[in-house]
Amino acid sequence: MSSWKALFMMFLTTAWAGSMQAQSEDDLLCAEKERLMLRLQGRANSGTAHGYDIDYYRCHWQVNPKNGPYLKGQVLARFQVLKSVDSIGIDFVAGMQIDSVKQGAQHLAYERNGDALYVKKTGSWSPGWDSVEVFYQGNPSNSGGFGSYAWDRHMTGPVIHTLSQPYGAKYWWPCKQTLHDKIDSIDIYVYTDTGMKAGSNGLLVEQWVQNDTQAVYHWKHRYPVATYLVAMAISNYAEYTQYAHWSRSQDSMPMLNYVFPQFRTQSQIETRECLYMLRIFDSLFTEYPFKKEKYGHAQFTWGGGMEHQTMSFMVNFSFDLMAHELAHMWFGDMVTCGSWQDLWLNEGFATYLNAIALENMRGVDAFELHMRGLRFQVCSQDGGSVFPKDTLNVSNLFSGRLTYRKAAWVLHMLRDQLGDEAFFQACRDYLQAPDNAYGFGYTPEFQAALERASGRNLDTFIQTWYYGEGFPYLNIEWKQRGKRMTLQIDQQPSHPSVSLFYIPIPLKFIGKNADTLLRVYPDQLSQQFLLELPFAVDSVVFDPHIRVLAKATVKGQNLDALQAEPFAVLPNPAADQAALVSKSGRLLSAQAYNAVGQLVWEAEPADLGSVQVDLPLSNWAAGPYWIRVSDENFVSCVKLIKKP
Ligand SMILES: [Zn+2]
User: Fold this and answer.
1) Measured in angstroms, how far is the CA atom of residue 491 from the centroid of ligand 1?
2) What are the extents of the domains in the chain?
3) 3-class SS of residue 547
């Protein structure tokens, strides 16, 4: 999901559709956090004992956004009981009314305990296949206007949309709400007003009108899906289909768009870019994971996007939002984070794939500019790890700065340090591993895939950049004399959890007619490097291609350029006051001699150590003087004229 992304939309001159209500980043984050806090509380109170492995749902949902949020539902669950239990548990909020629970025509007894529904059977549920069907209705909770089930209006019509991540599914449908058991397949029937269209997961296999007033949409999804990725959106949508063509085959796949009618013309131009994104991700990673069905968008009024499996819900169709939600089809939907501590494997990847889409479609400059922007935001505070120390703390868990942007930067550095070939191979291996594909993924599995592909041990990297907080501050000083370049690199970690960041330092050395890009690899907090460069350097740029998460200052100079005149007396001639100045380093010694060679003044040790020292001219007779002076780099003589 992406709410903070909405901020980027406002910076884009072309993408913002214009009439949706603009919100600030803070508003969006607050809204998201408020909503998630409710979900987290919901989870903390629940702890339903399920007692089965879920296989299939058939859902009938009757809604009419013209009349209000009211939902009448009928959900059939088919599952495998693993061992004998007295009752099977279903997550469903207490506020929704249950009309009956049945198996076939037979009514089953049930008990409600908070947000858990326990269904009983004569005797016990014995191991094997079984099913129940829950009939229910009510106004699903929409606390604070950001519930998992929202009834809202856009400019030309009403809309109902759901957004269950992470713990909101039970607010509107009876389900097994967990991150450990995907639903193997699902059929969704939405009954609504004939003026409305209903979007959902998978393929629209049938649609018809009954009794002249009710439109029925039957969506069928035959890929495993996490409960929080099941969704529906109903509005007076305009509809159009575009086709994605793959780079590895002649096939194509429909991309189905349900958009608010007032945005249709503009959306149709904007979503075209998503076809290229599909092709890029499909060729770089694994093939699009739901190829036999579709990808699609349904517009909604929440201030961001949500990666519902095969149909992302979108506030608009900005480049960044489309890329982010599409990326989730691989990282989030096909492979779902196995715990909320692994959320960076959803959100960090989605954020980084947004940058990769820019790299491939807008060019390297746009990519680097984007990564620079992310780095600026990550480094705006000294602390914070990608690993969320407290997943019940929503600010920590869904931190845009850490779980999204710093995580994207961690991926970016892995790619840089391991090389494209190993990095993308590791991503493919992680996505395709039998335990991960269409299942769940964990950080150690991703690390293992990276290590296999690169042959490198990444314990230190993961310890530093995933568990550790902060980033390095770097102080880089250079000086060149002849071909000899001396580099002094000092590192100060921004947070005490990391004693030293082992990072490459890319430096571009620029001269009048030549330049070169080199990397040095410090393994100490303070380290000097000696290089040979065949040309005179005028300036040095840190990390020109934006590959290192660090804040750096660079200073230095070419000593050869100062050779002729490394010191100066200012002013010269002078009457009462003048200063002796070194142009290249700290002064080490200075003595003044008159025209007949007598020593008239010598700098005290206390006066030295900086680049400048005052000359006490008032006691000196008028005439010429010679000042012998040395600094870290030069020894020389400067002539001074003392005026009468
Ligand atoms: Zn996301």
Assistant:
1) 33
2) 5-334, 360-467, 472-561, 564-642
3) coil
Angle at 448 between CA 447 and CA 453, to 5 degrees: 100
Which amino acid type is present at position 308? H
Q: Which CATH number fits domain 360-467: 3.40.50.2300, 3.30.70.580, 3.30.43.10, 1.10.390.10?
A: 1.10.390.10
In DSSP terms, 185 is beta-bridged to 56
Domain 472-561 has what CATH class?
Answer: mainly beta
Rounded to whole angstroms, the Cα distance separating 392 from 133 reads 32
360-467 with 564-642: one CATH topology?
Answer: no
> pLDDT tens, 393-439?
666 777 899 999 999 999 999 999 999 999 999 999 999 999 999 99
CATH of domain 5-334: 2.60.40.1730
pLDDT confidence tier of residue 1, bands split at 50, 70 and 90: low
Q: Span 313-334, mean pLDDT?
A: 97
pLDDT grade for 178, boundaries at 50, 70 and 90: confident
What spacing in Å lies between the alpha carbon of 347 and ligand 1's midpoint?
5
What's the CA-to-centroid distance between 304 and ligand 1, angstroms? 9
User: The sheet that has 587-594: what strands, in order across it?
Assistant: 599-602, 587-594, 623-631, 635-642
Q: Which residues of 521-548 are buried (b: 16+ CB within 10 A; e: fewer)?
A: ebeeeeeebebebeebbeebebbeebbb
Which residue's structure tokens are 């002539």?
639
Report how far ligand 1's centroid is from the alpha carbon of 634 (Å): 57
Q: How far is the CA of 321 from the centre of ligand 1 (A)?
A: 9
Query: Which class in CATH covers the domain with range 564-642?
Result: mainly beta
Name 627's bridge partners: 592, 638
Is the whole model's pTM more than 0.90, yes or no?
Answer: no
